[in-house]
Specification:
binds S-adenosylmethionine; three-stranded antiparallel beta sheet; alpha/beta; 11 strands; Rossmann fold; eight-stranded mixed beta sheet; 8 helices
Length: 235
């Protein structure tokens, strides 16, 4: 049985509900709108790609693949290079990805089918690299993120989409230890964004040296989080 069930959100885009966590990958207000705003815009990825800057993104939780699809769509439109690394334990299968139907709102709808047919050939554990175009690569670190995060190169990513399930059900990906490994993978000046503004999470990120802010949210979510790693960060 698949780990995932497809659900419709208010902007017409679809998301996945995890049977393991009994939670959806996005808010019911809109999977597409939330990913565009919280992940691509607040992390600075959209602006970097539009300026033509080569960009390295780290995503915690690949889920529906929407973070990658929308980022890759933007990179292709802008003609900018994108290296995207995601940590994931329950990789969705190709039929589920097709059922999500994200191609309907991509400027490069072929990305969805390219990802689906690559997933069909990808083992569900280990590290898998997908080079869809010379300057557009996706690397999945499959398995428990707490172990895989330590294999990431240090001080290497320009942005992080911090997107586990909420701390009450997925607490292992919000500990200071795990977040410390994530922060270590960011280069000085990098941005991190998340839908989660819980006080304990903000304090942990601050203790790890990030400058943390709350920003206006979207739909039912009043606030979301943006953080920056200072240029003079030591870790
Ligand atoms: C909120 S969803 C991610 C949504 C995704 N960013 C998207 O655009 O669809 C959280 C993801 O974290 C993954 N996850 C949760 N705990 C994990 C763990 N210990 N190791 C690896 N992945 C984990 C889940 O399988 C799920 O795909």
């Amino acid at each position: 049985m698949s780990h995932w069930l497809v659900e419709e959100t208010s902007d017409g885009s679809r998301t996945l509900r995890s049977r393991r966590f009994a939670q959806c990958c996005h808010s019911s207000s809109g999977a597409r709108a939330e990913t565009l705003y919280v992940s691509l815009e607040l992390s600075g990825v959209c602006a970097r790609l539009r300026a033509g800057a080569a960009t390295r993104v780290l995503e915690i939780g690949f889920g529906t693949g929407l973070g990658w699809l929308l980022s890759a769509d933007e990179a292709l439109s802008a003609g900018a290079a994108l290296e995207f690394v995601a940590l994931e334990r329950d990789l969705l299968d190709a039929p589920t990805l097709r059922e999500l139907g994200s191609a309907a709102y991509l400027r490069h709808p072929e990305l969805e089918e390219a990802l689906a047919s690559w997933i069909e050939r990808t083992p569900s554990m280990g590290t898998a690299r997908f080079e869809i175009a010379p300057r557009l690569a996706l690397e999945l670190f499959l398995g428990d993120a707490r172990e895989r995060v330590r294999e990431l190169p240090r001080a290497s990513f320009d942005a992080c989409y911090l997107d586990p399930f909420s701390p009450d059900v997925n607490s292992e990906l919000w500990t200071e230890e795990f977040l410390g490994d994530v922060v270590a993978a960011l280069r000085p000046g990098a941005m991190l964004s998340s839908y989660c503004v819980q006080g304990a999470v903000r304090r942990r990120l601050q203790a790890l040296g990030l400058r943390v802010e709350k920003c206006p949210g979207l739909g039912k979510k009043r606030e979301v989080l943006v953080a920056r790693k200072p240029m003079d960060a030591s870790r």
